[in-house]
Design goal:
The complex is a heterotrimer of chains A (315), B (433) and C (272). Chain A is mostly helical and 315 residues long. Chain A contains 16 helices and 2 strands. The longest helix of chain A is centred in the first third of the chain and has 33 residues. Chain C is globular, with a radius of gyration of 23 Å. Classes of the chains: A mainly alpha (315), B alpha/beta (433), C mainly alpha (272). Chain C: It is a multi-pass membrane protein. Chain C: Its main location: membrane.
């Protein structure tokens, strides 16, 4: 990473220091573990303990009424033999990929634009951010009403939507899900890019201009490389968000038509709370955790987040 | 820096205040667990709830132990019920469909057999039609008292729409196919279907299987003889469904329409569709949606006959009845017994009739003239009285764990996602008990 | 330095404006229509005669109650986060023990735990604790799942506090407690604002925990109210959209009055 590191918050002075020899003074007044204990215990009780229970449950058979029974790897075998599950993994990945592909260019473009100094910018960006104010539930509910084939916009705009059966076919149903997620999350990612784009030193543009670079070359040779960190951060968030999409599916398509939009996160809910197969549900949940962890770890490595940590932590 | 010292204090103070407020505020609205002198009654949330609310109010006027009514929106009732039934927050009395739907609860020893209640007050049994009462008997013990009413599935229609297309309510399957063509020509969706809920789609299967093969095929399949699904009759029924769907009888968007959110009833009421196959509660649904339509233009008929079918054309499908069952853990069984006695009281029967439901008490015929639509109630009563067989909805007859897969198979065969063989093997894979 | 406007980006942002604007237009006009007006005139038409029944209707179905519940959940969650995260981040940044490094790793790992993953045991734990269908049962797990990101944000802020300041205070013989209250907290107000905004939004918009962990009217939150409205009477689009609009109002107010903190807060979530 040769380029100067850009941060979203420009206010903070760059903290870069080398490890200094330990002195007595530096060791005085360091807080003990007791400061971390309450939060750790709380988090342990409500996140780690349940996570361990999920692992245990994935080796059990339980319908919520009788007593759970140990069944070894039965759930795991069943889940990976289940064509719906395999399909749901692909669907999760597809939706996540679609989300990244749609949202990244759009939010970079909007973010860079909003970071500029056009006159109407303030007003427009105020409107852009409206989706931020809505919960995923509200967003899905609104779009479900708008896209209703009989009483919504498609019934009026048949030239655009044909028979309006958006939720009745896999391709269009996936399209709707990807579109609604994009609608909801682009403003947030735009903010990330807006902040990052503002922090790009103008000198770089001036230098590029002296070299005779046009607007587009400036964008590709100055702006984009400078947004590297922001792109990584935003993509990690998109991936984790995409894998765990739930409300959108529940409200817009309920996994249908058939199982054509049943992504893993929704499938888990169905297995557990509709079919009362808590063991299979727990297994699907674990697959989700493993996928999310693996992808975040890979991306954290790529983004150099842990490096950033080591440069600032060396107190 | 000293001037800033206030900030954390204020923050800490605010936090403490917030937490105190929260804990005191949350502390006393403690969810659905019953209070001291109280028992909870959980029912399916829909248009009928106003009758149940009134009944609970009546009951609470005189009773020392109060009843508390909780509702769960229909679309989620069954799943929430099973989720909480073995937790401390389970209700004391709850609504169900009889038969398979309570079998797992009985097996887990959660329910109170009502035989002692009945010994003390024989009316709890004798005041109901025996066939209905028996549908909630499991392993020889009574577990449910009928409430609400019997709910046969009928073919409803918008009279205006049918008139405009020159269509009569169909008596035979061929009439129906004819009507579909004519309605298509007049530019409306012939049959509204809340395919998004999946169980409305199931009704078409239930009736056609019954008409063509008789009730025996399904009984056989349910008892574990899954070859029944491969039989010639089964394929014939599937072929007829395929044909009906492919002619465009349901339009194209049925899987995006729901009954539970009033989508499909709205299509019929607003004249965008001609028919809808639905349970008898349809009347009260339309009544609460558009009172004028329900009174003037809502028509109904029995499901058409199918030529050459083995099933009796007077057979019905639907919900035999709804029932209240009592949990073993209930703390006030005496009060609950008193509450259950109201299920055959005159006012209750009249109120149910008033919203188009048909209670199955022995005194029901006395009040038919006082129904919201006497004609409708009498028609329904006639159907039920004459029916040689009343097939309980498939998803209620199967154990709950089969419901999701059953619904999916039905939806996918209907919209072409599964072919005949795919549907048959999906049905064969369902757990039977 | 910029010479001419960026036409491509400008056009793109106009299209985006349309995509944002259309639903907003439909939403606002629909809430002023009667249901039959909406069905007959379609979602794009203007209301023929304006009605406010949809808003009063939303309150009749209990949205007032849902509001208070959601507010309560939000305040409690923010409270818990503010109580737990600052000391935690402080110790992560300043402590040199192995244990705290491990704790930081634990919370980093926590970032990758989707809340859906633990919903099954969470249901079991909460109902065994007798907190099913009780707002406390929603508050506790929601707060727990707001901790990792908040910790990450706040410890990022605290790392930026200059080391000389700590050393100066240490010279004066300050205890960790004094440093925390006199130095760390005042200097991390930006980060604190960010975690307040973040955890408040998470609590306000939370869905899955309330969906699985509550049931009755008395403990319903707004998101669940919207969902139920949709499942029960979804075809009443004007009423539904009025409820959505109402649910936006508090966030909108925060947005209007604290736009900078909100925007900075959200940027902070992504940026750090």
């Amino acid at each position: 990473m040769t380029i100067q590191k850009t941060r979203v918050r420009p206010a903070a002075p760059p903290v870069k220091r080398r490890r200094t020899p330990t002195t007595n003074v530096a060791d005085v007044g360091r807080p003990g573990f007791i400061w971390a204990a309450p939060a750790t215990l709380f988090f342990g009780a409500f996140a780690i303990v349940p996570l361990i229970m999920v692992v245990v449950l994935s080796f059990m058979s339980w319908d919520g009424i009788g007593d759970p029974e140990f069944t070894g790897f039965d759930n795991w075998r069943r889940v990976f033999d289940d064509p719906v599950m395999i399909k749901s993994i692909w669907l999760s990945l597809l939706l996540t990929a679609l989300g990244v592909l749609l949202q990244t260019p759009l939010s970079i473009m909007l973010g860079v634009w909003a970071a500029g100094n056009q006159k109407n910018r303030a007003v427009l960006s105020a409107v852009y951010f409206v989706p931020l104010l809505l919960s995923a539930t509200a967003v899905s509910v609104v779009w479900r009403a708008l896209l209703d084939p009989n009483f919504g916009v498609p019934a009026e705009a048949t030239w655009l939507f044909g028979d309006g059966n958006l939720f009745g076919e896999q391709a269009t149903a996936i399209g709707v899900l990807a579109f609604v997620s994009t609608w909801q999350f682009t403003p947030f990612h735009t903010l990330i890019y807006q902040g990052a784009a503002r922090a790009i030193p103008q000198v770089l543009y001036q230098a590029a201009e002296i070299d005779g670079a046009g607007r587009y070359r400036q964008f590709f040779h100055v702006t984009l490389p400078q947004l590297r960190n922001a792109i990584m951060t935003s993509m990690i968030l998109m991936v984790v968000g995409g894998l765990t999409t739930f409300e959108t599916v529940l409200i817009l398509t309920q996994g249908g038509p058939g199982t054509d939009t049943t992504i893993s996160a929704y499938y888990m809910y169905e297995e557990a709370f509709k079919s009362f197969d808590y063991g299979a549900g727990a297994t699907v949940a674990l697959v989700l955790v493993l996928a999310a962890t693996a992808i975040s770890l890979i991306m954290v490595r790529l983004s150099g987040y842990d490096k950033m940590r080591s440069t600032t932590e060396g107190l | 820096m000293k001037t800033r010292r206030g900030t954390p204090r204020i923050v800490a103070g605010g936090v403490a205040l917030g937490l105190t407020l929260a804990l005191t505020a949350c502390g006393d609205d403690g969810g659905s667990g019953s209070g001291e002198n109280e028992f909870t009654v959980l029912v399916y949330g829909d248009a009928t709830n106003k009758v149940e609310k009134k009944l609970v109010e009546e009951f609470n006027k005189t009773s020392e132990v109060k009843a508390r009514l909780d509702t769960i929106p229909g679309a989620e009732y069954q799943q929430k019920l099973q989720t909480i039934i073995s937790t401390p927050q389970a209700p004391d009395v709850f609504f169900h469909w009889g038969g398979g739907s309570i079998k797992p609860f009985v097996d887990a020893d959660l329910l109170l057999p009502l035989d002692d209640f009945i010994k003390k007050e024989p009316g709890l049994k004798d005041n109901f039609l025996p066939s209905v009462f028996d549908a909630s008997v499991v392993d020889g013990k009574a577990y449910g008292v009928p409430m609400r009413g019997t709910q046969p599935v009928m073919l409803f229609h918008n009279e205006k729409v049918l008139d405009e297309a020159g269509v009569q309510p169909p008596e035979t399957w061929d009439d129906l196919l004819d009507a579909v063509e004519k309605l298509k020509d007049s530019g409306v969706t012939p049959i509204a279907l809340g395919g998004g809920d999946q169980w409305p789609t199931q009704m078409w299967f239930q009736y056609l299987y019954d008409r063509i093969a008789g009730p025996e095929l399904f009984q056989k399949a349910l008892s574990g003889d899954t070859e029944a699904w491969e039989s010639e009759d089964s394929r014939k029924a599937l072929g007829m469904i395929r044909e009906l769907v492919d002619t465009g009888a349901f339009g194209k968007t049925y899987d995006s329409v729901k009954f539970t959110n009033n989508g499909s009833p709205q299509l019929v009421a607003s004249g965008k569709a001609g028919f809808e196959l639905m349970g008898s509660w349809y009347y009260s649904t339309q009544q609460s949606l558009d009172e004028k339509f329900a009174a003037e233009d809502l028509g109904y008929s029995a499901f058409p006959t199918v030529e050459g079918g083995k099933g009796d054309p007077e057979n019905l499908v639907g919900n035999t009845n709804n029932y209240y069952s009592v949990m073993k853990k209930a703390e006030h069984p005496e009060a609950i017994a008193e509450f259950l006695k109201l299920m055959y009281s005159d006012t209750f029967v009249k109120d149910q009739l008033g919203i188009g439901n048909l209670p199955t008490t022995t005194n029901t015929p006395d009040f038919l003239d006082e129904a919201a639509s006497p004609e409708y109630s009498k028609f329904q009563y006639g159907l039920v009285e004459k029916a040689p067989h009343f097939q309980l909805s498939w998803d209620q007859a199967y154990p709950q764990s089969a419901a999701t897969d059953l619904h999916k198979a039905i939806q996918q065969f209907f919209n072409g996602g599964l072919d005949e063989d795919g549907f048959i093997s999906a049905m064969q894979a369902l757990p039977t008990s | 330095m910029r010479r001419r406007p960026n036409y491509l980006a400008g056009a793109g942002s106009l299209i985006w404006l349309f995509l944002i604007g259309l639903p907003l237009y439909v939403m606002v006009t629909a809430t002023l229509k009667t249901q039959s007006d909406f069905v007959q005139g379609g979602p794009l038409g203007l209301p023929t005669d304006i009605t406010f029944d949809n808003f009063t209707g939303a309150f009749d179905t209990g949205f007032g109650r849902y509001f208070l519940n959601t507010l309560l959940v939000t305040v409690c969650v923010v409270g818990i986060v503010l109580l737990l995260v600052p000391p935690l981040s402080y110790s992560i940044v300043r402590s040199r023990g192995r244990v705290t490094t491990g704790v930081f790793r634990l919370f980093l790992l926590g970032l990758a735990i989707p809340l859906q993953a633990v919903i099954i045991p969470m249901f079991y734990l909460i109902s065994e604790a007798g907190l099913y269908d009780n707002l406390i049962g929603v508050i506790l797990p929601t707060a727990a799942f707001a901790l990792p990101v908040s910790t990450l944000i706040l410890s990022g802020t605290m790392r930026d506090i200059s080391r000389e300041l700590f050393e100066a205070m240490a010279m004066d013989g300050a205890t960790p407690r004094r440093m925390f209250f006199q130095l760390v907290l005042p200097l991390s107000r930006g980060g604190l604002a960010t975690i307040v905004v973040f955890s408040a939004l998470q609590a306000w918009n939370g869905f899955l925990f309330p969906l699985v962990l509550t049931q009755s009217e008395e403990s319903k939150v707004i998101t669940l109210g919207l969902y139920n409205f949709q499942t029960e009477r979804g075809i009443d689009a004007p009423g539904l959209l009025a409820a959505v609009l109402l649910s936006m109002i508090p966030v909108l107010l925060v947005y209007l009055f604290a736009r900078r903190a909100l925007v900075r807060g959200l940027m902070g979530v992504g940026g750090k």
